[in-house]
Amino acid sequence: MIRIARCAAALVVLLLVNQPVLGGDDFPIAGTYMRDIACTGNGSARPDLLVTITQKRIESPMGSCNILSRKRIGQTISAHVECKVPGDQPILGDVTFTIRDEKTLNFEDQDHTSDATLHRCSE
What we know:
Elements: H1 2-17, E1 31-35, E2 50-53, E3 57-60, E4 63-73, E5 76-85, E6 89-101, E7 104-109, E8 116-120
Antiparallel strand pairs: 1-2, 1-8, 2-3, 3-4, 4-5, 5-6, 6-7, 7-8
């Protein structure tokens, strides 16, 4: 029984060690953006349109989301998110970012209720 437990523990450690580490290039969309308008400066002039994306979170006036998982295929990054919208209502869903160029992303949510074009701000 102890031998089985040791083998199981070793397998868990091996699986954890062999998880892929995502480098900066695997999540190149981290940054500050303006929703649907070109960003000038750092975006502080229009906080109602400001969207901030990190490897773990998405912050916008519409709500705050934790990125639970993500997958990149070419220029598309899909993410499963847990969001809290106004009123602290939790929502689970899927979002997709498509990189158009180095300064522009297309954003789509699974229900297409908040689709947008995001324009990167200088930081």
